[in-house]
What does this fold into?
Amino acid sequence: MSDTADTADTADTAAGEPLLQAHGLTKTFRVPRSASGSTRLHALDGVDLTVRRGETLGLVGESGCGKSTLARVLLMLERPDAGTVRYDGVDPFALRGKPLLAWRRRVQMVFQDPFASLNPRLSAGELIAEPWRSHPDLVPRPERERRVHELLEMVGLRPGDARRHPQEFSGGQRQRIGIARALALNPEVIVCDEPVSALDLSVQAQVLNVLTDLQAELGVAYVFISHDLPVVRHVADRVAVMYLGRMVESGPAEEVFTAPRHPYTASLLSAAPRPPAERGDGRERRIVLSGEVPSPTDPPSGCRFRTRCWKAEEVCADRLPADEPAPDAPQHLAACHLPLEPAGGGARR
Ligand code: SF4
It folds into this structure.
């Protein structure tokens, strides 16, 4: 994770080797349309994504944009209709038996709701030790109590908390237990699905600090899903923006946040609070999008954003825009026929 003041250069050096790579992921779901018929909901449409060792990749976009479906595919909870996933060069969907079990250990999840994600009948110690039932060789039985205490301390709780039950903890403490449980299997990637959105602001900062410290200590990579742009800016080395099942912009976080190239990213950023150093005289233009988000059962032709984009031209309806790198920042990609100029359009006009 990077501090707010980190630069794009810092983000680049923080990023390691590609670990988890997805290419051309497509996923549709059959949903009822009327009493007699059904239709297809296009949750993912040709999505590419790379997660590097030890980095935090922020994944942002409005509700229904496909973030959670993408997370479920990366966790192998959903099989894509098309496209590939490679983890350390291996297709996890082709694994069976012990290799599959070993793979599952390497990618874990922290859930949004710490109240719903912990079984109230188990103590914190039992919750943290639970994953070892499927992976009994990872921690020998005589060492488990000591390891539970160690994990509790790593997330800022006390060894004595192992005996307490979830309902005896605050929301932030419960999320710390969820993080300790994810860490119990020594994962290399943790998918954090809105991990602080259910918490009070002051508690959010504490939980984010826990995640930051653990990453520095363990080198774990995070896929950090959130609709809260200031939080993503605070934690992410790189950021990826989704709209209606497609990836529309990605790149080093500071680069994307300070010089968005896709009109959708610019509109999101224009509505988000900014750091004091970037606040102007209050006359910066807020981009208010017209129109509703189109239905994912009937997405627009060409660019998915064209029905709400103030820059749309005929070409936008005719052709799907491909990812194009920024002229001076090759890792900063935007899928737009008419990308914004760094000093011109968008959130900072
Ligand atoms: Fe707007 Fe066209 Fe770019 Fe889509 S491709 S974001 S409609 S300018």
User: Anything to note?
Assistant: The radius of gyration is 21 Å.
